[in-house]
Design brief:
Shape of chain A: globular
Largest interface: A-B, 55 and 51 residues
Strand content of chain A: 5-15%
Shape of chain B: elongated
Distance between the termini of chain A: 50 Å
Oligomer: heterodimer
Strand content of chain B: 35-45%
Order of helices and strands of chain A: EHHHHHHHEEEHHHHHHHHHH
Chain lengths: ~350, ~240
């Protein structure tokens, strides 16, 4: 596996790389600080949270990027703006010290030559996590043995999803977007990439829709990392915020396009996440039997439509839908679609 | 719906489920709501008379409220999730009505189960002048002028649609504007903001608050039974065709 991600030709511009390096430096410093137990209490007492700090810094970086960042030294201006802002200006005591420490560490991290390798190590972590999760439920064969290649491309208008995958090339394309939630994405790179594996590289059927990829399988990922001690609480909280930020961004992008926009266009049917949580809470084994059947369903447009219909029914039928999934000894999707009373 | 603006509380409960364990500050930030919304949620959960969450005091020194972390119990997870699913169904229906192409369809109709009926659509920007007939359901999001004769089918006129036509169908649902007489063997619904200028003959009629209707209503239940018989006969034919392959 290469030490650094591949760069798309449109990301060769050194000023774009400098902008990305700032995000990586901030991400390293934030990750270090947020992983300290003392940080949580200090921020809480200051009515701050890790989520707020990451989101606030991200928005300041995005604002500076709009004005034009040519090189990494712009990080000084970013921190000046951060400490001049109302959110950070009035911090005192321990929370102030932590913010100062994050600033100091980010300045130290910035010139390090290995910054981009963070995406490669996040990718290895994501691949390992996905593999371990699938293995636990007898689905390990669905994941390619080696991590996918990660390629960064510039999406300066931020019209694409933050990452995309090619199953044929076994490649994940990471979009560099000058938006406020880009910093969250880098801090959460291992989870974002794990989502790319579970939702986009693992399923056999390439025609699956949003309800499966951005709905049910995102829930499956989150329910899996809820119980992994290596994924700390602050990261799980940031993930919830990041998904909400992506949704808001999706709505903003959709506004410029014809046709109505709704949550369904972003993450599939409303209520799917709740039904996934309920099924998982009742039986992890049954949840993965159902999820495994979706992941293993062969390539077929009709099959993809059936699965979307099935998920719609799982929501529509509420408790009865969960009871029915719990009652099944064998999870054959064709039977489930065909025999579920209309 | 129970709430005047249910999306905010829905989102908050959903993020609470996603986090499972949270402080007030964490939940309000992740959900993008003010602190009082989180306090209200905890208050509501306390009122249920069950232990839906547990409270852990993290720090109590210093001024102000003690800092607490809340953890949903399994009962709390089920309570919030089941409540949200009920609301989610309504969100989905609204989204499907706004954009019918989002509605999931199982197209195969395997093992004797009736597949959802195929639907014809008149897309926004499209105008049809003349006569529409056949056996599929019809959703109109554009303009139609003339005659719509779909005796056994459901015709839905969406919010931005304009129809100047007589309609003969099993069921007619109006979110947009219709000028013309309607005969529906089963029922006619005029939704809020929908408009009908014409006479109707049907077994059942429902006119929501805010809808516009000018014309006469004749209740005729005889067609309901005939249409049902024909529909059942047609469905039986579909099964036979599907099983013969």
């Amino acid at each position: 596996m290469p030490d650094t991600p591949q760069f798309d030709p449109n990301f060769e511009d050194t000023s774009l790389q400098a902008q990305f390096r700032i995000l990586l430096a901030l991400s390293r410093a934030l990750t270090h600080a947020l992983s300290q137990p003392a940080t949580f209490l200090a921020f809480e007492r200051a009515k701050l949270s890790g989520n707020q700090v990451v989101a606030h810094l991200g928005s300041i970086v995005a604002a500076h990027t709009e004005e034009g960042i040519e090189e990494g030294s712009a990080i000084d201006g970013i921190w000046e703006a951060a400490f001049a802002s109302p959110k950070f200006r009035n911090t005192t005591g321990a929370s102030r010290e932590i913010l100062e420490a994050i600033r100091a560490q980010s300045l130290t991290e910035l010139p390090k030559p290995d910054a981009f390798s963070d995406l490669v190590s996040a990718n290895a972590t994501a691949h390992r996590f996905t593999k371990d999760t699938l293995k636990k439920h007898g689905l390990a064969g669905l994941l390619v043995a080696e991590p996918a290649l990660v390629q960064i491309f510039a999406d300066l208008k931020a019209v694409h999803f933050c990452a995309g995958t090619s199953r044929i090339a076994n490649k994940i394309r990471w979009a560099y977007q000058p938006v406020a939630h880009a910093l969250e994405g880098i801090v959460l790179a291992d989870l974002v990439l794990a989502h790319e594996y579970l939702s986009h590289l693992v399923p056999k059927n390439s025609r699956l829709d949003q309800s499966v990829r951005e709905g049910w399988l995102v829930s499956a990922l989150r329910e899996s990392f809820q119980s992994v001690p290596a994924i700390p609480h602050w990261k799980r909280a940031l993930w919830a915020q990041h998904r909400a930020d992506l949704y808001r961004h999706f709505l903003k992008v959709r506004e410029a396009l014809p046709g109505p926009s709704s949550a369904i266009g972003f993450e599939g049917f409303s209520g799917l996440d709740e039904q996934a949580i309920r099924l998982h809470a009742r039986s992890t084994a049954q949840f993965w039997k159902f999820t495994g059947a979706i992941l293993e369903y062969p390539e077929s447009l009709g099959g993809a439509e059936d699965i979307a219909w099935l998920l719609g029914e799982v929501v529509r039928r509420g408790t009865e839908g969960i009871d029915h999934l719990m009652s099944l000894k064998y999870m054959n999707l064709e039977d489930l679609v065909g025999k579920w009373d209309p | 719906m129970a709430d005047r603006n249910p999306f905010g509380p829905y989102r908050l409960r959903r993020v609470a489920l996603q986090l499972r364990q949270f402080t007030i500050n964490e939940l309000k930030t992740a959900a993008g709501v003010p602190s009082h919304a989180v306090h209200d949620l905890l208050h509501d959960l306390r009122q249920e008379g069950k232990t839906l969450f547990e409270t852990e005091t993290l720090a109590s020194e210093g001024p102000g409220r003690p800092l607490s972390r809340y953890t949903l119990t399994p009962e709390g997870v089920e309570f919030l999730a089941s409540g949200n699913v009920a609301i989610a169904k309504e969100f989905n229906e609204l989204a499907f009505q706004e954009n019918p192409s989002l509605r999931p369809r199982s197209i195969k109709g395997r093992n004797g189960v009736v597949a959802e009926r195929p639907v014809w659509r008149v897309e926004p920007g499209l105008t049809i002048k003349g006569e529409i007939s056949g056996d599929r359901d019809l959703q109109i999001d554009g303009r139609v002028e003339g005659l719509i004769e779909l005796n056994l089918s459901k015709v839905t006129i969406l919010a931005s649609a304009k129809v100047t036509a007589d309609i003969i169908a099993r069921e007619v649902v109006i979110y947009g504007s219709v000028k013309g007489n309607i005969r529906a063997s089963n029922r006619i619904e005029i939704k809020k903001d929908g408009s009908l200028n014409g006479d109707v003959t049907t077994a059942r009629v429902m006119i929501e608050d805010g809808a516009f209707f000018k014309g006469s209503i004749e209740i005729d239940k005889s067609g309901e039974t005939r249409a049902q018989d024909k529909s059942q006969a047609r469905a039986a034919g579909t099964y036979a065709a599907a099983e013969s392959h």
